[in-house]
Design goal:
Helix content is 28%, strand content 24%. About 6% of the residues have low confidence. Among the domains are: 133 residues, no CATH class; 125 residues, Jelly Rolls (Sandwich). The longest helix has 28 residues. It contains seven helices and 15 strands.
Length: 371
């Protein structure tokens, strides 16, 4: 009898262990097959679902292990993601890391950033001009696919014409090589609940855009392991999927309404190695609504005292009256707009100082701090 009870107890432990392992595995991969039944999107799995959404958009257009190039600068008709940047050319590709993925960039006279994002939107670091890096399955948090997002700086002549030919030549010299040819098969998420959660998170961010910073919102493996970390990450992924970590770029965001003049001292960035800053104006939901929505340091003209002023004016005004000006659409959101001040490539060890500079600017000009 004792032997029978002992055998039954051992069997119970084995069944419990196997069940626990199965549940853990199912939770990790979140049922990639799932019998074609869409997975409901919640706050807990939003980031993974949103990342699968963006990965699949690229794969549906060009397949895996290939770059999808965007030859022109961002515009109202050329928005690859929410809050597109006008000062760089973009390319995106979904690559398999099984067996090793090697990224190689050329030396260049401009900014090059190849960002590596895994299937959980964890930033695995960036590859800069003149560098080579190899990524394997050991480097990702889950799965075996990453998105490579290329950003190549665009320079402007004295007449404001961008050097797109040179920038595209640099872009196409960036290489990514892998031996893996496996297909990308993401979990099937419910689109309606994904859209709903994204809208809720965007509204929460717009209600208090300074509650968290992009340092809280974007990061490497493990950065959002706390409830507060997940809340911050959810908001920033909702309003700016694919954003860089603050060591590579800081995004100062604030809300405005009507005509505004923003004045500041030149930020301390690594200009010699492609660093730059820009101010971009979006609608409240983060999309480009005007022709002259952005201006960057390549085109900025300083004031006589060395400070810099950028005028945010209604679309249709004569921009030639100003040294530096961008537009908002007065017919959208009752003249309200959101701004992103990008600070690319802080000097080594200066990321926190650059972040504080950006936070101070955002606080000064956010319309709610004036009420």
């Amino acid at each position: 009898m004792k032997k029978l009870m002992r055998n039954l107890f051992v069997l119970f432990l084995l069944v419990t262990f196997v069940s626990a392992c199965k549940n853990s595995t199912e939770k990790k991969i979140e049922n990639r097959v799932n019998d074609n039944k869409p997975i409901k999107v919640t706050r807990e799995n939003f980031i993974k679902a949103e990342t699968a959404h963006y990965f699949k958009k690229v794969v549906d257009k060009v397949g895996v292990n290939k770059f999808m190039y965007y030859p022109g600068i961002g515009s109202e008709d050329n928005q690859i993601v929410v809050r597109t940047n006008r000062d760089v050319l973009y390319a995106q590709g979904i690559f398999c890391v099984k067996g090793g993925l090697t990224i190689t960039t050329p030396k260049a006279d401009r900014l090059i950033i190849v960002q590596i994002l895994d299937e959980n939107h964890y930033d695995l670091g960036s590859v800069f001009a003149g560098e080579t890096r190899t990524i394997t399955e050991k480097d990702v948090s889950e799965g075996k696919f990453v998105q490579l997002t290329i950003r190549v700086g665009v320079k402007y002549d004295e007449n404001g014409k961008p050097d797109l030919d040179k920038a595209n030549k640099v872009m196409h010299a960036i290489k990514a090589e892998t031996k893996c040819n496996e297909p990308y098969n993401p979990p099937l998420y419910d689109q309606k609940s994904l859209d709903s959660i994204r809208a809720v998170l965007t509204a929460e961010f717009n209600a208090n855009p300074n509650k968290y910073t992009s340092k809280d919102g974007f990061g490497g493996i493990g950065y959002r392991d706390t409830p507060e970390g997940l809340e911050a990450a959810n908001m920033f992924v909702a309003i700016g999927w694919g954003g860089l970590t603050y060591n590579d770029a800081f995004y100062a965001m604030f809300n405005g309404k009507g005509d505004t003049t923003i004045t500041f001292n030149k930020p301390d960035l690594d200009y010699e190695n492609g660093g730059f800053y820009s101010l971009t104006i979006y609608s409240k939901d983060g999309w480009i609504r005007t022709k002259e929505f952005s201006i960057g340091s390549e085109r900025i003209k300083p004031n006589d005292d060395g400070t810099i002023s950028i005028h945010v004016v209604a679309e249709g005004e004569d921009l030639s009256k100003y040294k530096n000006a961008v537009e908002y659409d007065p017919k959208v959101d009752n003249g309200e707009w959101t701004a992103t001040f990008r600070l690319y490539k802080p000097k080594k060890g200066k990321a926190d100082e650059v972040m504080q500079w950006g936070l101070n600017l955002a606080k000064k000009y956010d319309v709610r701090h004036k009420n």
